[in-house]
Amino acid sequence: MKRTQIEFIGRSEINAIPVILKENASKRVLLVTGDQSYQACGAEDDINRLLCNYNLIRFKDFSPNPKFDEALKGAKLFKENGCDFIIAIGGGSAIDVAKTINAFQAHEGQEKDLAIGKVKIVNSLAPVCCIPTTAGTGSEATHFAVTYVDGDKYSLASDALLPNYVILDPRYTDTLSSYITACTGFDALSQAIESYWAVGATKHSREFAEKAITLLIHDIETAVNDNTKIARDNMLLGANYAGKAINISKTTAPHALSYTITSLTDIPHGHAVALTLGNFFILHKEKRVPQDIQVKFEALFSILNVTSPESAHTWWYSLMARCGLKTKLYSLGLSDDFKMSIINSVNIERLSNHPIDLTEEDLVTVLKPELL
Q1: What is residue 356's DSSP assignment?
Q2: What is the C-alpha R_g of the chain?
Q3: Is residue 335 scored above 90 in pLDDT?
Q4: What angle do CA 190, 196, 202 make, to 5 degrees?
Q5: Distance between CA atoms of 83 and 31, rounded to whole angstroms?
Q6: What distance in Å separates the CA atoms of residue 363 and residue 367, rounded to the nearest whole number?
Q7: Which of 38, 18, 40 is nearest to 91 (CA)?
Q8: How far is C-alpha 40 from the geometric centre of its chain's CA atoms?
Q9: According to DSSP H, which parts of 3-110 are helical?
Q10: CA 234, CA 96: separation in Å to the nearest integer?
Q11: Which of 91, 190, 196, 307 sits in a 20 to 30 Å window from 54, CA-based?
Q12: How far does the chain reach from its first CA to its final CA, in angstroms?
């Protein structure tokens, strides 16, 4: 039976934390946070004030792309200190590693098999509360957790990984730079669009995706360029809806291509996804998709307030530019042979979730200089 999350949404909703811990009779908390961002966003001051009577064990020793050994270290810290609750405060990496730590601590001796999918989560996990400090990944709303084992990316998946509690307090996103706001915003927007057209989409996931798209396209420019509170509020809620959408549908080809782009260029994940997503509007037209799929694309165009694949393509890259993001992959300094590196390392599972069958030639097409 799937768990229903308990959500606290709004500015200063962090104040619910002591109530949550009291309800769970928790005494010792593993606090999974970013490094400097934890203090910079104001979360550290709030946590110290609210939880001064609790034993807090902080874990922050993990990478932007969390590694197996890092999660293992966090699980060991959880067990050694007798923790009974996990609070994750940060971006997608902090939340993902917190989920992985929780799975590992409950399956001692099986951690690697768990990470690579050889065994499933069967033991009870500790309760988790996630507090995102970026409006991007939506990881607080998903039952997935990404970890890297020997350099390869794996995704734990289990209903048990869905966090018990979520606090969406937009105050922690107010201090994000314009660039990170744009990157995380485009990650969320890409997730929502991909979710809408995904093979795995359902009526329910499309409802979440439409809510996400509507909020995000309305406020992303304002959040990036003017940093108003209402825009920040809507971006965080939109990212959460996008997370709920992909929790059902998963993502598709633009995400599949993005991971190697990030590794080759060091640009943030959201920027990497955005670089190719707009080109898929054109590719879908050229592939002459079946009528039932075309109907879904047209419904998506209506949500985006565009009328055709060409106008969707133009709108997408114009929006990126207005948000200060480079729109040309070739402008990031990669040599021409980078294309095959991206294609050869693509996530096949996400390709199979794309609404049309894709060939290697199709992937080369979306990476062409004249499109990018």
Answers
A1: S
A2: 20
A3: no
A4: 140
A5: 10
A6: 7
A7: 38
A8: 21
A9: 17-23, 36-40, 43-50, 68-80, 92-105
A10: 23
A11: 91
A12: 44
Question: Beta strand 6-9 with 128-132: parallel, antiparallel or unpaired?
Answer: unpaired
Burial class (CB in 10 A: 0-12, 13-18, 19+), 355: buried
pLDDT at 336: 65
Q: Which amino acid is at 10?
A: G
In sequence order, what are the residues at sequence separation of 6 or more whose Cβ sits closer than 8 angstroms to the Cβ of residue 336? none
Of the candidates 250, 252, 233, 241, which has an alpha carbon nearest to the alpha carbon of residue 209? 241
Q: How confident is the model at residue 88 (pLDDT cuts 50, 70, 90)?
A: very high
| Contact of 245 with 190, CB cutoff 8 Å | no
Report residue 27 CA to chain centroid gap.
30
Give the amino acid at 339. Answer: K
Kindly state the tokens that stand for 281. Answer: 């509007």
Contacts of 288 (CB under 8 A, 6+ apart): none
Which range is least confidently modeled, 97-106, 179-188, 320-329? 320-329
**Tokens read off for 315:** 């709108």
Rounded Cα distance between 118 and 229, Å, is: 45
Whole-structure pTM value = 0.95
Kindly report the number of other CB atoms within 10 A of residue 280's CB atom.
29
If one counts every other C-beta atom within 10 angstroms of the C-beta of residue 209, the result is 28
Q: How far apart are CA 24 and CA 39, in angstroms?
A: 26
Could you tell me where the beta strands, DSSP code E, fall in 158-247? 165-168
Average pLDDT of the residues in 2-30: 94
In whole angstroms, what is the distance from residue 229 CA to residue 222 CA? 10
Task: Give residue 288's pLDDT band: very low, low, confident or very high (50, 70, 90).
Answer: confident
Tokens at 250, concatenated: 């998963």
C-alpha to C-alpha distance for 284 and 252, rounded to whole angstroms: 13
Closest CA to 217 of 240, 193, 253, 250: 193
The count of other CB atoms within 10 Å of the CB of residue 82 is 10
**CB contact at 8 A, 21 and 85:** yes
Q: CA 130, CA 116: separation in Å to the nearest integer? A: 24
Beta carbons of 130 and 86 less than 8 angstroms apart: no
DSSP state of 67: B
